[in-house]
């Protein structure tokens, strides 16, 4: 009996969850991901041998190995529909697949991550029904919405985490960080955007990834890239630059002078404040999504900013523009805020890599879950080892 902990990562993306679990010594024995570039990024970091770069539904039962843990986040179809509680509803196919893997692999524990509203979804009701009296009835489940910032990630990102266990109930990990930790609580302050990106050049030297290709799964793909390769800027128009220059940290489109507002925003004076927002240095970032490179999609402008008066005559903001950094965060900065190691290897186009980054579970959150689960699996391994040596003696 070995004490190695074997894991299967389903809907593995570029490997955010696996980074966290591997950090606690888990060994991936299978990963399934149908986005070829994401699967290639996963393979570039963890090896191609155990990756199936294809549709989970096409993986035959015979290819599902035994494992101690199955992790993954089956995409959620929606929150308002009735009928999804039925496992046979075609829209539940990915959940059926997750359960097929659990039943074939027979892990001691499974971990599901999903959107923060997941507990309100029909899929969650279906999962409860399966653990109460269905195919997963051997598993006890615990669930909660966790904020990655509470686990040392420099990002506010809420995910529903479900731990199913057939080796005794496993509670969700307790936070290690807090916004304002009470003295004596043992908690550390939230990590901030400053902690993870302040050392990087504010003026990236290029707008493009290096022109390089590698072969994964028999296909040639852009990459492999890492570190400063991903520190790429965009090419905003003069008007966009002028707009960004007005947005203070924590601010957004409502800080723009009317003269600079696009017509659609003039006609829509209400709405989310995050649009064309600017990050703050001394807080965790907002949730990094797949289109973080578009300032109109959220609070993704670089946090460095110095105020300046509006110069009516020249229609621009006065002040020293070199003191403000009027650009969105780069792919590299987004990957660090998403808690990927600085030397993580990436495969794909700019858009594909951004999608991989934005879809990932921050490794610090995944590692906190792995740390919580590991002692239960290790204790079970020791019990099994004792039992088999007793049998051998008898
Ligand atoms: C939220 S992302 C996973 C992120 C990943 N856990 C991480 O931490 O990096 C969900 C992934 O499921 C993949 N996916 C969706 N449907 C799939 C299918 N039928 N077969 C395999 N992968 C699928 C998507 O391509 C996407 O990368």
Describe the 3D structure.
- It is a single chain.
- The chain has two domains: 5-191 and 360-393, Vaccinia Virus protein VP39 (Rossmann fold), CATH 3.40.50.150; 196-358, DNA Methylase, Chain A, domain 2.
- It has ten helices and 14 strands.
- The protein has helices at 16-23, 36-46, 93-105, 122-133, 193-197, 238-244, 263-266, 331-337, 350-359, 363-393; strands spanning 5-10, 26-32, 51-52, 69-72, 109-115, 140-147, 158-165, 177-178, 188-189, 213-216, 219-226, 310-311, 316-317, 345-347.
- Strands 3-2-1-4-5-7-6 form a seven-stranded mixed β-sheet, sandwiched between helices.
- It starts with a strand and ends with a helix.
- The model has no long low-confidence stretch (mean pLDDT 90).
- It binds S-adenosylmethionine.
- Residues 11-17, 32-35, 38, 55-57, 73, 75, 94, 359-361 line the site of S-adenosylmethionine.
User: What is the third-level CATH name, the topology of the largest domain?
Assistant: Rossmann fold
**Radius of gyration, in angstroms, nearest whole number:** 23 Å
Residue windows where pLDDT falls under 50 for at least 5 positions = none
Unique bound compounds: S-adenosylmethionine
Summing up helix and strand content along with how strands pair, one would put the structural category as alpha/beta
Question: Would you tell me the overall average pLDDT?
Answer: 90
List keywords for this structure.
14 strands, elongated, binds S-adenosylmethionine, DNA Methylase, Chain A, domain 2, 10 helices, 2 domains, Rossmann fold, 7-stranded mixed beta sheet, alpha/beta, 3-stranded antiparallel beta sheet, 394 residues
């Amino acid at each position: 009996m070995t004490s190695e902990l074997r894991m299967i990562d389903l809907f593995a993306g570029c490997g955010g969850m696996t980074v966290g679990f591997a950090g606690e010594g888990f060994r991936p024995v299978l990963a399934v991901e149908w986005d070829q570039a994401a699967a290639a990024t996963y393979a570039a970091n963890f090896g191609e041998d155990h990756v199936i770069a294809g549709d989970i539904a096409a993986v035959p039962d015979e290819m599902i190995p035994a494992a101690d843990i199955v992790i993954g986040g089956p995409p959620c179809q929606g929150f308002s529909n009735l009928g999804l509680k039925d496992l046979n509803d075609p829209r539940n196919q990915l959940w059926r697949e997750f359960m097929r893997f659990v039943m074939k692999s027979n892990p001691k524990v499974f971990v599901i991550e999903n959107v923060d509203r997941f507990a309100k979804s029909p899929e969650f009701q279906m999962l409860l029904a399966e653990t109460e009296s269905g195919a997963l009835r051997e598993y006890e489940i615990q669930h909660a919405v966790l904020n990655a910032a509470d686990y040392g990630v420099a990002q506010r990102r809420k995910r529903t985490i479900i731990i199913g266990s057939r080796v005794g109930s496993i509670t969700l990990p307790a936070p290690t960080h807090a916004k304002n930790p009470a003295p004596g609580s043992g908690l550390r302050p939230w990590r901030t955007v400053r902690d993870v990106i302040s050392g990087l050049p504010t003026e990236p030297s290029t707008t493009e990834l290096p022109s390089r290709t590698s072969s994964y799964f028999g296909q040639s793909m852009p990459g492999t890239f890492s570190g400063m390769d991903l520190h790429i800027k965009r090419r905003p128009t003069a008007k966009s630059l002028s707009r960004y220059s007005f947005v203070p940290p924590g601010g957004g489109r409502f800080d723009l002078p009317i003269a600079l507002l696009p017509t659609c925003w003039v006609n829509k004076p209400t709405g989310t404040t995050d649009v064309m927002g600017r990050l703050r240095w001394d807080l965790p970032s907002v949730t990094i999504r797949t289109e973080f490179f578009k300032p109109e999609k959220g609070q993704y402008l670089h946090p460095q900013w110095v105020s300046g008066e509006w110069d009516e005559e020249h229609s621009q903001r006065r002040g020293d523009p070199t003191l403000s950094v009027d650009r969105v965060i780069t792919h590299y900065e987004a990957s660090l805020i998403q808690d990927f190691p600085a030397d993580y290897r990436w495969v794909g186009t700019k858009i594909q890599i951004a999608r991989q980054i934005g879809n990932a579970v921050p490794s610090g959150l995944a590692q906190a879950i792995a740390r919580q689960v590991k002692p239960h699996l290790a204790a079970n391994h020791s019990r099994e080892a004792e039992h088999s040596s007793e049998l051998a003696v008898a």
